[in-house]
Amino acid sequence: MVTVAGKTERASKPERAGRTGRARETREAILDAAERLFAEHGVGEVSNRQICEAAGQGNNFAVGYHFGTKADLVRAIVRRYNAEMEQRRLRMLAELTDSSDLREWISCLVLPATGHLDALGVPSWRARFMAQANTEPALRQIVIEEAVATPSMRRNLDGMFRLLPGLPEEVRQERAGMSRMLTVYALAERERALHEGDPTTRTTWEDTAVGLIDALVGLWPAPVTIPR
Amino acid sequence: MVTVAGKTERASKPERAGRTGRARETREAILDAAERLFAEHGVGEVSNRQICEAAGQGNNFAVGYHFGTKADLVRAIVRRYNAEMEQRRLRMLAELTDSSDLREWISCLVLPATGHLDALGVPSWRARFMAQANTEPALRQIVIEEAVATPSMRRNLDGMFRLLPGLPEEVRQERAGMSRMLTVYALAERERALHEGDPTTRTTWEDTAVGLIDALVGLWPAPVTIPR
């Protein structure tokens, strides 16, 4: 095909739509396969070749072609997850505005994730993928960047920190890490138990959220000891 | 060599001592290598062959010969770790007796581990091994069995639960899981950061313990919501 004066020859409209649709399907298949393999083995232990095979892609370069580096692929999975939760959190926050009840703000941190996992059904790999991504510092940085970058999360944390004015910045960050860690691992553990038919501590995702929120309502405003 | 009437021919005494010493060295080398490899890659991702190679054992059956299954090997690493902490915790508990200060009992949960890691120096892999073992449910069960089986841990938890009489049994177990998870992952993260020369949130292991203890003093007695 000939390109004349910057004008690239294009496929006809229906053909383009077909290609775009196929590209989207390929991307989704890769995201699904990578999420599952990362969840099961850890991000560092899975190769692009394994992801391509699991996604039914004959071409081992499909991951690189569609996503770039492994970090980019992890970011894409995290974004897909955050996008699902964003609407849920924004709806919840709309009802809070200036609430002075710490529990309500903490609930907005937890319930979008449990609601989303509940909607996904069994099996899902999303919570276990998040747990694995949080294990590796470089990837955890991506998770944090992406999470804090969402408008809903910024509003959520601002609303919460207004009620914890005495918390030093370092302790705030430390507890944010603890809070994230507790949530991520509790959800991953429940997702795994549901998948493998093991008993679970709590009956439903909603009850799981209640247990987590209770604990975080104690953890966030806990007294701060200044080390000697 | 001939065995007569149940009487096995034995090596002479100094030779036996040499063999026992070598066997002990081999066992320690395997424990060290396994701890490091499990910490870096996850227990499920490491083969006996890799452990034997890293331990300088020509014979790939050395792991099986000295320890049995992989679960037995994990148990042996956990026991070595617990043994190191047991003396520290017993010494701390001896000073508490009937303390009615929840913080003191919670300190006994955390300080033996941070004190031990401090004494190990950099690099160590112990905290990261524990984090990896806690990720896999079957192995986590071993960790819990071994930890609860130590006399110091039983006394520690008994003393603590006396101060939390209203906590339902399920919530007690749930929070024990959260408390363990928070501690294990915070110590693993610090151990990794020290090893890789990354910045750490807290300056010393002792300060790290203070941050953890503060959070747990809030988490353990947090209000309990009965789900609808």
TrEMBL record, chains A, B:
Domain of life: Bacteria
SUPFAM superfamilies the UniProt entry points to: Homeodomain-like
Record key words, sorted: DNA-binding, Transcription, Transcription regulation
Keyword Plastid attributed: no
Compositional bias segments (type: Basic and acidic residues): 7-24
Domain PsrA tetracyclin repressor-like C-terminal: 125-217
Ranges for domain HTH tetR-type: 30-77
Region (Disordered): 1-24
Alphabetized Pfam families for the sequence: TetR_C_30, TetR_N
Protein name: AcrR family transcriptional regulator
Organism: Streptosporangium lutulentum
